[in-house]
Write a structure and sequence with these properties.
single chain, 217 residues, alpha+beta, seven-stranded antiparallel β-sheet, 3 helices, 11 strands, 18% helix
């Protein structure tokens, strides 16, 4: 997933203990910049209970435009049903029913997909295995196609996790703020609870498929 640093990370995969999840680093591309993709947190895919009502969140400021990932364009071409509508970003009313849908989709996809680095510059609508952006894409697809969520309220987003590795999540823009469906987390969470450095997100209705920069402060 994307990085805003203009350098290439050439570090190799580190060996993991047999009892631990394998720690791999995935090379991805955003506008020609190399990055990595973070593994899910241990146990994060095993959640089976619904959380309580989502805590309040806040809006997420956006700055200027930037180029979208090349792999994102390929994804949209292969799956036009995932394309953003011509409508601008429009937060959705977050009813209790929608909260339940978010929790269910988050849990189901985390259980469905087994983490596997899939190589550089590959964003896919996967069925059983993939990396961070593939979790986010499957959640996006399920919410829109199965539950009728408006595409203009859902955006894929790129960030850096605590270690500096690149990562991707699905953001939900609501009348109660922005929430993140993150495969590294057990629950849907307010975006500010994630200790990440945000990079950019999709921008529904933006010209030429440009993404929006996300200020870190």
């Amino acid at each position: 997933m994307p990085s805003i640093d203009n350098h290439r990370d050439a570090s190799s995969e580190s060996a993991a203990k047999p009892s631990d999840l394998s720690r791999r680093r995935l090379i991805g591309v955003l506008a020609g910049v190399t990055a990595t993709c973070a593994l899910p947190a241990p146990g994060g895919a095993n959640l089976t209970t619904l959380p309580a009502t989502l805590p309040p969140s806040s809006a997420m400021r956006a700055a200027g435009f930037r180029a979208a990932p090349a792999a994102w364009f390929k994804l949209i071409k292969q799956h036009p049903e995932l394309d953003l509508s011509a409508e601008p970003l429009a937060p959705v009313a977050l009813t209790h029913a929608r909260e339940v849908e978010l929790a269910l989709v988050h849990q189901q996809v985390n259980r469905l997909i087994r983490f596997r680095p899939d190589g550089p510059d590959r964003w896919q609508l996967v069925e059983s295995e993939g990396d961070c952006e593939d979790y986010a894409i499957r959640k996006l697809f399920t919410l829109c196609q199965k539950y009728g969520w408006p595409r203009s309220a859902l955006t894929l987003a790129a960030c850096h996790i605590e270690s500096g590795q690149g990562h991707a999540v699905l953001l939900v823009h609501s009348d109660r703020g922005v929430y993140a469906l993150d495969n590294r987390r057990r629950h849907v969470e307010p975006w500010r609870r994630l200790p990440y450095r945000w990079i950019a997100r999709e921008d529904p209705g933006a010209p030429f498929g440009l993404w929006r920069k996300l200020p870190t402060a």
